[in-house]
């Protein structure tokens, strides 16, 4: 499942994930770091960006609407944590689903 998701990423996205230490690319083969560690790091990055945005109180004005980025980042962080928790529960029920 994770390999299919990783394989669907663009080359630039895979490179970005590699820069964050979430993926390592050797030749045409992708190796995901520990999925739980990767999710934890990703959530930490999002939460740090959320704090940065809260401190700056960034707002976007788009087609007559005002979007407060702090609220959007909070929603993303919450959803990422939910996805990680669901994945952890799925791996607990079906250990063969975990990446090597």
Please characterize this protein's 3D structure:
The protein is α+β, with helices and mostly antiparallel strands and 100 residues long. It is built from four helices and four strands; from the N terminus they run ααββαββα. The strands form two sheets. A two-stranded antiparallel sheet has the order 1-2. Strands 3-4 form a two-stranded antiparallel ribbon. Strand 3 and strand 4 form a beta hairpin. Helix 3 runs antiparallel to helix 4. It is globular and about 50 Å long. The two termini are 12 Å apart.
- Written as H for each helix and E for each strand, in order along the chain, the element string is HHEEHEEH
Query: What class do helices, strands and sheet pairing give?
Result: alpha+beta
Q: How much β-strand is present in the residues?
A: 15-25%
Widest sheet: strand ordering: 1-2
Number of strands: 4
Give the averaged pLDDT, no decimals.
Answer: 74
Alpha-carbon distance between the two ends: 12 Å
Number of helices: 4
Secondary structure: helix percent: 55-70%
Compile the SSE list and pairings.
Layout: H1 2-7, H2 11-19, E1 23-26, E2 29-32, H3 35-56, E3 59-62, E4 65-68, H4 69-93
Antiparallel strand pairs: 1-2, 3-4
Helix pairs in contact: 3-4
Which key phrases capture this entry?
single chain, 100 residues, alpha+beta, two-stranded antiparallel sheet, 4 helices, 4 strands
Summarize the structure.
The protein is of the alpha+beta class.
């Amino acid at each position: 499942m994770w390999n299919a998701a990783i394989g669907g990423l663009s080359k630039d996205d895979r490179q970005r994930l590699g820069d964050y230490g979430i993926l390592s690319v050797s030749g045409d083969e992708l190796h995901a770091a520990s999925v739980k560690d990767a999710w934890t790091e990703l959530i930490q990055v999002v939460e740090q960006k959320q704090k940065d945005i809260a401190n700056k109180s960034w707002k976007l004005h788009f087609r007559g609407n005002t979007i407060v980025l702090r609220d959007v980042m909070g929603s993303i962080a919450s959803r990422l944590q939910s996805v990680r928790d669901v994945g952890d529960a799925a791996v607990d029920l079906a250990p063969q689903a975990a990446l090597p």
